[in-house]
Write the structure tokens for this entry.
Amino acid sequence: MNRLITSTAIPARAVKIEALANMTASFESFCLASGIEALAEMMENDAQTACGPRHARGKNRRAHRWGKTKGKIGFTAAGGD
């Protein structure tokens, strides 16, 4: 009779910890991408309100679609400071 000498046990705790870390990283990436997309939509809506449709010309326009400013938008990962 042949006996198995190789352990088939999976280190369940280590696998769960790794899966949780991967899931957390994926969720943070999803949140960051979703936040960037939401900000882009909000800024485009603000530009549309102030300037009218893209490439439109008109006397009633209150602003232009160009310029720059210094600023920061922060993102803190879960569990971060």
Summary: Residues 12-51 form the longest helix (40 residues). The radius of gyration is 26 Å. The chain has one helix and no strands.
